[in-house]
Design a protein that fits this description.
Low-confidence stretches: 451-500, 507-511
Number of helices: 18
Radius of gyration: 26 Å
Number of strands: 14
Helix content: 40-55%
Distance between the termini: 58 Å
């Protein structure tokens, strides 16, 4: 049996021996590239399993559905056993605690965020707005903040836009205070919102919003939980996919404390189909991504981009990806040849072979590997056969997925949508007649009586001390639960009003 140094993950075997990824350097980020069918998904699964086995939680997008097999035990496929024997390692079937997520709530627990948390910068990119329209969206966010109207879901934005379109006095007020919003701009934003809704984004913009700490759990054995995002349907809305993952990176950066360079990452984030993040992205957004990638390392988060072509990633970001796995590339076109040359030049050259030629000769499951060593310098590149996964290779069944969801410890936390008072309801009340408002007050009194109502004020305690807790009816418990959710969300709303997420602050506080 080959010896495995502590604090490392086995990546594969080269002619010179086993190749390892050092956990202490894993938050220096990484890149997995290669043409379709060359083994990128297997490499991703092998790395994810290695991190989880060492107690590091993992988040990965499952674009094809194949990655879900990490939650089922390996089947001892002949090629897996043979490959492990070749590496001097013993094959042992394993499985990992897996939590499934889905923005549409179909193949995993729903993931939601509020419009306010996403902020105008990302919403503008999601809507594909031009600079003038993005400026108008910033005005909408600012007006909502200044007037105490929470923007939680898409109907809140639509209601606010409709209010501005119909109220000439409000348009004049906005022009005097914030700037002009033309009718053409309002119409363009309304049309793009409709397109976004048709793509299913209304499922994502809602509450309860995701608690990012739910991605950073370990199981009862101390192994990292592998979070799998079902992305096969999501890939039909590539802007939504890329914007969601970018939002998640900014949330991690904004909420995690500084830890420097820990002995192992607090979370490893695999961004599959990474080119979607940068396609048609404005320069300011690419610069923000570059800054987040550079700084999030100090939060103990490792980011691993997975894509077909290294040219998909801007040079400023590529320079920060120290751990590299390069599968085969095909050089059929001038762009392909340029990609091969660019990929070869990023490695520390090995005198035993020509890197540029090797990239086009690699077999399926073979890759050029260069990991960081010592004080963070890249190792000499090696031709390496990637270690096979220990869990199942290929997708699990729908029944197995449902069972995993039931056992995740999150069942019920995100399943039911909460629709509390926000901009939409506030604007509706503004246009209610006095009779309608009185009817609403009467309904509140009736509900109060049913739920053991009356005044919600607490009874004073002895000598002005803490109020005595009164027994709660079932109705009061439900109301209090909703109130706690509201309080949490209000706190997040206030935070977002101060700084619209890390991306806004990195772009000079743009709102």
């Amino acid at each position: 049996m080959a010896a495995i140094p502590p604090g490392t993950i086995v990546v594969g075997k080269s002619p010179d021996g086993l190749q390892f990824l050092t956990l202490k350097l894993a938050n220096r980020h990484g890149l997995v590239t290669g043409a379709t069918g060359t083994g990128k998904t297997v490499t991703l699964q092998t790395l994810a399993e290695g991190f989880a086995a060492e107690g590091v939680p993992v988040f990965a997008a499952d674009v094809k559905g194949d990655l879900s097999g990490v939650g089922a035990p390996g089947r001892g496929d002949a090629w897996c056993v043979k490959a492990m024997d070749h590496m001097g390692l013993k094959y042992q079937a394993d499985q990992f605690t897996t939590v499934f997520w889905d923005l549409f709530g179909e193949q995993g627990h729903p993931i939601r965020a509020t419009v306010a948390e996403m902020g105008p910068l990302l919403i503008a990119r999601l809507l594909e707005l031009n600079p003038t329209q993005e400026g108008a969206l910033n005005i909408l966010f600012r007006y909502a903040d200044d007037n105490g109207m929470a923007l939680l879901d898409l109907k809140d934005i639509r209601a606010l836009i409709a209010e501005i379109a119909q109220d000439n006095a409000l348009q004049s007020q906005l022009m005097a205070t914030y700037g002009n919003i033309s009718d053409q701009t309002i119409g363009a934003i309304q049309r793009q919102l409709l397109v976004l809704e048709n793509q299913g984004a209304a499922n994502f913009f809602a509450e309860p919003a995701l608690d990012i700490s739910d991605f950073m759990r370990t199981d009862r054995d101390g192994r990292g939980i592998i979070n799998i995002l079902a992305a096969d349907k999501l890939m039909k809305s590539p802007k939504l996919y890329a914007t969601f993952l970018l939002w998640m990176l900014s949330e991690l950066f904004e909420n995690l404390p500084e830890v420097g360079d820990p002995e192992k990452p607090k979370l490893v984030f695999f961004f599959d189909e990474a080119h979607l993040l940068f396609n048609d992205a404005p320069k300011a957004l690419v610069e923000a991504v570059e800054t987040v990638v550079r700084l999030i390392r100090s939060k103990g988060v490792g980011i691993y981009f997975v894509t077909q072509n290294p040219l998909d990633v801007p040079n400023t970001v590529l320079a920060q990806l120290g751990n590299r796995v390069q599968h085969a590339l095909r050089a059929f076109t001038p762009r392909d040849q340029k990609a091969v040359k660019a990929a070869a030049e990023t490695f520390r050259q090995n005198p035993k072979f020509k890197t540029e030629a090797a990239i086009t000769e690699l077999a399926v499951g073979e890759a050029l590997v260069s990991m960081l060593e010592g004080k963070g310098t890249p190792m000499m590149v090696e031709r390496t056969f990637i270690k096979p996964p220990s869990a199942q290779v290929g997708p699990i069944s729908p029944a197995e997925r449902r069972q995993a969801m039931q056992n995740s410890g999150l069942s019920g936390k995100y399943d039911t949508t909460i629709d509390r008072e926000s901009a939409y309801e506030i604007l509706q009340k503004k246009h209610e007649t006095p009779t309608q408002q009185a009817g609403g007050g009467m309904l509140d009194n009736i509900l109060g009586g049913i739920f053991g109502g009356g005044s919600a004020a607490p009874q004073p305690g002895p000598r002005g001390g803490q109020p005595r807790r009164q027994p709660q009816s079932m109705g009061e418990k439900a109301i209090n639960s909703a109130a706690r959710s509201m309080a949490t969300s209000v706190g997040r709303q206030v935070g977002n009003a101060i700084v619209r997420g890390v991306l806004g602050s990195l772009l000079g506080g743009k709102r």
